[in-house]
Design a protein that fits this description.
The complex is a heterodimer. Chain A has twelve helices and no strands. Chain A is mainly alpha-helical. In chain A, helix 5 runs antiparallel to helix 6 and helix 10 runs parallel beside helix 11. About 5% of the residues of chain A have low confidence. The longest helix of chain B is centred in the middle third of the chain and has 18 residues. Chain B starts with 9 loop residues before the first strand and ends in a 10-residue tail after the last strand. In chain B, helix 4 packs across helix 5 and helix 5 packs across helix 7. In chain B, strand 1 and strand 2 form a beta hairpin. Classes of the chains: A mainly alpha, B alpha/beta. At the A-B interface, helix 9 and helix 10 of A face helix 2, strand 6, helix 4 and helix 7 of B.
């Protein structure tokens, strides 16, 4: 009897000890753990990880310089179909896994280098839109009144245009080029971020801890920066992840129309646009860039979905 | 330690806070007078909507629109808080006057650790080095009775129980040793055993630092345990004010009497609890006479005409005992 009681006591001490020593988990660490428990999130992360590795290690992975015209250097024909040694392409011919494009360049190298352009466009446009939207939305919601009205009505006007058309208009004014395309896409997507941030700040503003920190002497700016913004970020982080996907698509669209990245830059949209008439005679020239766009966008969409689920406490344990 | 003659830390006179709603003006606080001496606890009791919390928020000048402080004086150490600029007032909050709220679970910033939230108080009010702030925060956590404060300092609010979170709130509120602490129903959201621990803690710290406390609650048991003086509020005004023993031994205002009668007694075999008949008058459409007249048992017995005609003043009915009732006045109009 006594020993049983003793054992129970030592066990309860053990448990107490463990509880006290357990390191508390931060929100983002918990989120990452939940994200990794979901298949969509993992697949998304793998796809994006793959694309990022390709982008960063492009000089290592790409067999050729993406802008190197192989005419006269190798025996290749214009828009030649892929030559893969493993699949029976004679070994005396140089290997081109995705074939040759209309300007005698190695398509595989161009697709790999294209990841650099697309990903950096995706990240930078979303970064600008995110920062701009967060700041404008937070200011509008926190200060309210005429400022809120002014900011949000401007956002409504921007939202009133079909986004790609407005982006085309902006690029048409500023001139084609990758930097202007990037700017145009940021402007066009910004209102969505501002709206989400505003809604989120409006609800956080009414929380007890905002009133409590006011009662304990925190200034308005401090309350905004350390109470409201960090707590309001969750939905906008999810939106950003999904936003990268649409930014990449928009950029590809602008480039396809000849308004984004200019030749000879290897960019997926530009590559599609340049070879669109050869879709039946040389399908590999539109298939591979298209596939790359699709996989990247899919990756960000899956990650966004997974992140949304992981950040929603109602869907978790 | 007899402080009856001490100058009050806070004295509120004729405070009126009205809410300008679409349905009319809701006179949530309509002429409230209060006083707290240093080192004392003033209990403010009353039912929901009687203006307790609005009084507290008015003192802090944190009334949300459409509310507005219409009139009155809030003297804090001789200085009228209502005439300070918003920045001067913000400086006072947390440093000289602190407040704790009802629900500890939602009063802490969820994305910042407990330790950092306390350290931030020193950062705001003392501008001391971050390292020193952290040490002081841990010291403060220990003071409010949190076991293993070094470890718990890195816990996020959602990892703390309600009682623990309220302790952290108290640590934040008392970090800069304010002269006045306003506790707005600090234990309502907690379960009973934790309630008495938290009250005990407030009492203990308050005695150590001689902080004056305004304790707002609807629980007469809580004020009986904690307060030195009690103000009973009804429909936006103080109807009775007295020290604790006097109030419980000899309640004067009919509302207080009926309120005390309606408390269930543990162990007593009561079939029915006493109920105060009727309802609290609408704050938008207050009756002209005494606000309690319609529900008053004493009025029906004594039958004074003044009760329904004019509003009684808050007058002394004994030593240190005031009530707002025509029964105790020699010549009611």
């Amino acid at each position: 009897m006594m020993s049983l009681k003793g054992a129970a006591e030592s066990l309860s001490e053990d448990i107490d000890e463990q509880w006290l020593q357990a390191k508390p988990m931060s929100l983002w660490k918990t989120t990452l753990r939940r994200l990794l428990r979901r298949k969509t999130g993992i697949v998304g992360l793998i796809l994006i990880g793959f694309m990022m590795v390709m982008a960063i290690g492009a000089p290592v992975f790409a067999p050729y310089d993406p802008e190197n015209v192989l005419i006269g250097k190798e025996k290749v024909r214009k828009r030649e179909a892929p030559c893969i040694h493993l699949l029976g392409c004679p070994s005396e011919r140089p290997q081109h896994l995705m074939g040759i494009d209309g300007n005698f360049r190695d398509q595989l190298s161009r697709v790999i280098y294209g990841a650099r352009v697309s990903l950096s466009i995706g990240f930078t446009t979303v970064l600008f839109a995110f920062l701009g939207g967060t700041i404008l939305g937070a200011i509008a919601a926190y200060w309210g009144g005429w400022l809120d009205n002014l900011i949000m009505r401007i956002m409504d006007v921007i939202l009133g245009f079909p986004s790609l058309l407005l982006a085309i208009a902006i690029v048409a004014v500023l001139g084609p080029g990758i930097r202007n395309a990037l700017f145009a896409i940021s402007i066009v997507t910004l209102p969505a971020y501002a709206r989400v941030m505003r809604a989120s700040v409006l609800s956080i503003k009414e929380m007890d801890y905002v009133a409590a920190s006011q009662a304990l002497g925190a200034s308005r700016l401090r309350i905004l920066m350390s109470r409201i913004v960090p707590n309001a970020l969750t939905p906008i982080v999810v939106l950003s992840t999904l936003g990268i996907a649409s930014a990449i698509l928009d950029a590809a669209g602008l480039s396809f129309l000849g308004l984004g990245a200019q030749p000879p830059t290897a960019e997926w949209g530009t590559m599609l646009g340049a070879e669109r008439n050869q879709v039946f005679s040389a399908p590999h020239l539109v298939f591979f860039p298209g596939l790359a766009i699709m996989l990247t966008v899919l990756g960000f969409n899956l990650l966004g979905d997974g992140l949304r689920d992981a950040l929603d406490p109602r869907l978790n344990d | 330690m007899n402080t009856a003659t001490d100058a009050p830390v806070l004295s509120v006179t004729g405070l009126k806070t009205w809410f300008h709603t679409r349905d009319g003006i809701a006179k949530s606080v309509d002429g409230v007078d209060l006083e707290v001496q240093p080192g004392k606890v003033l209990g403010v009791v009353g039912e929901s909507g009687c203006g307790k919390s609005v009084t507290a928020l008015s003192i802090m000048r944190l009334i949300p629109p459409p509310g507005r402080i219409e009139n009155g004086q809030v003297l804090f150490k001789g200085e009228d808080l209502l005439s300070l600029s918003p920045t001067e007032m913000a400086k006072l909050r947390g440093e000289h006057i602190s407040m704790i709220f009802q629900d500890p679970g939602s009063s802490l910033n969820p994305v910042v650790t407990a330790g950092n939230q306390i350290a931030e108080m020193y950062e705001i009010h003392r501008q001391t080095a971050a390292r020193a702030n952290q040490d002081k925060a841990i010291e403060m956590l220990e003071k409010v009775g949190i076991p293993d404060p070094g470890q718990r300092a890195s816990a996020y609010p959602h990892e703390l129980s309600g009682g623990m979170a309220q302790r952290v709130m108290i640590a934040m509120a008392l970090a800069c040793e304010p002269q006045l602490l306003i506790a707005d129903e600090p234990t309502t959201a907690l379960d009973v055993t934790i309630q008495s621990q938290i009250l005990e803690l407030i009492r203990e710290l308050q005695e150590q630092t001689r902080t004056a406390v305004i304790l707002i609650t609807h629980d007469l048991g809580v004020v009986a345990q904690m307060a030195d003086r009690i103000a009973v509020m009804y429909a936006g005004e103080v109807v009775e004010e007295s020290d604790v023993t006097n109030l419980f031994d000899e309640p004067r205002h009919p509302y207080t009497r009926q309120l005390l009668k309606s408390i269930p007694v543990l162990g007593a075999n009561q079939d029915d609890l006493a109920v105060i008949p009727g309802r609290v008058p609408s704050l938008v459409d207050l009756p002209g006479g005494c606000r309690f007249a319609a529900r008053c048992e004493a009025r029906t017995e004594v039958g004074l005409a003044a009760c329904t005609e004019s509003r009684p003043p808050l007058e002394a009915v004994g030593t240190g005992h005031k009530a707002r009732c025509w029964m105790y006045l020699d010549n009611p109009p």
